Amino acid sequence: MRILVTGGAGYIGSHVVKELGRAGHDVAVLDDLSTGNSWAVKYGSLIVGDLADEQMIERVVDTFRPDAIIHFAASIQVEESMRNPLKYYRNNVGNTLNLLKVASAFGVSRFVYSSTAAVYGIPETIPVDESAPIEPINPYGASKAMGERVLGHLADSSDFRFVALRYFNVAGADPDGELGQAYQASTHLITRALKTARGEFERLAIYGTDYPTFDGTCIRDYIHVSDLASAHLAALDHLASGGGSEIMNCGYGRGYSVREVVETAKRVTGIDFQAFETDRRDGDPPALVADSSKLRSLTGWTPRHDDLEFIIGTAWAWEKRLLKRMTA
């Protein structure tokens, strides 16, 4: 198939592009490179452009004629969304509307959407499944929930079909060593822990120790980025085989606390880096753990890297490669 991937030069998008290329798909990547990197696009062609430019999207779709679109391009930092909500509604809702308008005009009826567990807010039950109430507690989650709603309405009114994948906490790096998290302003816990281990940060902040969890810190379901990438190909196959529109969680169904992640990172790296406790961040729910049985049963998706030490180990190998690149 011919697949247009927006945000395909970013962390998750680049891993998906690699999987698509290896599977034999014809790929075009559309990315503004605000947080992505051109070197991360290992397959297909890279078009640099902003989804705020509807005419540019029209030119790309008219030229490439995709059979499907995978849409990653978005702003994704919870804390920033609390400070600058308009940016999140502009990028995550407005730009998605631009893309969908063009897709509809050119008859692109298969769409895979990058969503988030943040749409659930503070779920009443853990693990959380897709039937849980949508009650986001930050603008990031709210903007993604709004995108899902738009997709649903479009599917109800036409032959358009979509899969929205709700990510839990994505971590790790390409086991081949070609790709990884390269966004210097990353707020991801594992990335920041490893950057602290290699000396980029003096100390690692643990935000909040009074949550209603077993050790007082937030609990998250960490999924390896390569397993998440394979979920996108599974979603694409679902649509290609005539499957209907679906919303599906992407996670392993087990959670680790911030303190557990920090201790595992110290064990993997062999470095007893400093961490300090501070106040909660706005917009962080106490626990988010996925029930991904729907994804598994509908698509046959089977994760290969459900191991926190492996996840952190691949991320650590990538961080050391980054350091060598920076000091070369």
TrEMBL record:
Keywords: Carbohydrate metabolism, Isomerase, NAD. CDD domains: UDP_G4E_1_SDR_e. The keyword NAD applies. Pathway: Carbohydrate metabolism; galactose metabolism. InterPro entries: Epimerase_deHydtase, NAD(P)-bd_dom_sf, UDP_G4E. Its cofactor is NAD(+). Its EC number is 5.1.3.2. It comes from the Bacteria. The keyword NAD applies. Signal peptide: none annotated. GO terms for molecular function: UDP-glucose 4-epimerase activity. Residues 3-251 form the NAD-dependent epimerase/dehydratase domain. GO terms for biological process: galactose catabolic process via UDP-galactose, Leloir pathway. It catalyses: UDP-alpha-D-glucose = UDP-alpha-D-galactose. PANTHER family: UDP-ARABINOSE 4-EPIMERASE 1, UDP-GLUCOSE 4-EPIMERASE. Belongs to the NAD(P)-dependent epimerase/dehydratase family. NCBIfam families: galE (TIGR01179). Homodimer. This is UDP-glucose 4-epimerase.
